[in-house]
Specification:
Number of helices: 6
Helix content: over 70%
Shape: elongated
Number of domains: 2
Structural class: mainly alpha
Number of strands: 0
Strand content: under 5%
Oligomer: single chain
Length: about 200
């Protein structure tokens, strides 16, 4: 049973690798022949290549799904099933960011889980895969940097807000003292209320 499970894993690996190659091929076709094609004949030929790639994707996806079912029937553990996830339609799409890295709307996109499989072999054997991983790495690095900047900004805004509240406490404390010195009880009472309010707000931060 263990040997059979390993055979299904091996076939699943081959299918995932082929799917990656077909997706990368489609992206390159879109980038070089469709988006930047110089004439109608080139575009028509390119769409034919895209159709062939799509057919191959469906073929390998079907085989992978069968491998996934068989691994489940053979009692594959959670660690294996976590690695070889169920293949959904959303996983069978290419990242158009590689076709136009500067296009709007791709900043928060992430690649489907199948792109985490055997990255080293992919990059060593195919320039298309290297381009895919390069673009995705750059986008993930940009996303990480942006969120780090957001976190730092939020911390600064929190500190600025706290300083504002504490400044209000000092202001109304001085107003309270001045009101008491002048015998203005109602103003002193209002100033006390303001001090307490801003003090509580400052404590929340």
């Amino acid at each position: 049973t263990q040997m059979e499970l390993q055979l299904w894993q091996g076939q699943a690996n081959d299918c995932l690798h082929e799917l990656q190659l077909r997706f990368a091929e489609k992206a390159v076709i879109f980038q070089t022949d469709i988006h930047h094609g110089s004439n109608y004949h080139m575009a028509t030929h390119a769409w034919g290549r895209v159709a062939n790639a799509d057919a191959a994707v469906q073929c390998y996806a079907t085989v992978y799904c069968w491998c996934h079912i068989q691994m489940g029937r053979l009692g594959a553990g959670p660690n294996i099933l976590e690695q070889y996830k169920e293949l959904n339609d959303s996983d069978l799409t290419i990242s158009m960011a590689v076709s136009d890295p500067n296009a709007r709307g791709h900043r928060d996109n992430t690649l489907p889980w199948i792109w985490t499989m055997d990255v080293t072999r992919d990059m060593a054997t195919n320039d298309w895969m290297s381009e895919f991983y390069r673009v995705n790495w750059l986008r993930m690095r940009e996303l990480q940097d942006r969120w780090q900047e957001e976190v730092q900004l939020l911390k600064c805004e929190q500190e600025w807000t706290k300083n504002f509240f504490e400044n209000k406490v000092r202001f109304w404390t001085s107003q309270k003292a001045a009101a008491l010195a002048q015998g203005q009880a109602r103003l002193a009472c209002y100033a006390t209320h303001q001090c307490q309010m801003y003090g509580r707000l400052a404590c929340l931060l």
